Amino acid sequence: MKPPTPTVSLVIPTYNQRPLLERLLNSVETLEFKEPFEVIVVDDYSRDDTEAFLISCATRPHRFQANYVRMAQKEQRAGGRAQ
Known about the structure:
The protein is of the alpha/beta class and 83 residues long. The chain has one domain (8-72). Helix content is 24%, strand content 24%. The protein contains two helices and three strands. It has a three-stranded parallel β-sheet with strand order 1-2-3, with helices on one face. The longest helix has 12 residues, at 18-29. The N and C termini lie far apart (50 Å). The model has no long low-confidence stretch (mean pLDDT 84).
């Protein structure tokens, strides 16, 4: 059975904030929101254990649809620098 389509998206940008991110996601689990929702974590290439933590989260059941996006290293990003 396909999960319901989320009606709300919560986007969380992060960079080297693993402990804070864990507390935040635990808080999201306790929301009394009745509609299906998704959480999208956008990691700006953290150098702490944020990536490992988020990958481990993928194996646990959640009330929400979880998505993880890791940005490319700064040297690999396209585009120029703002002047």
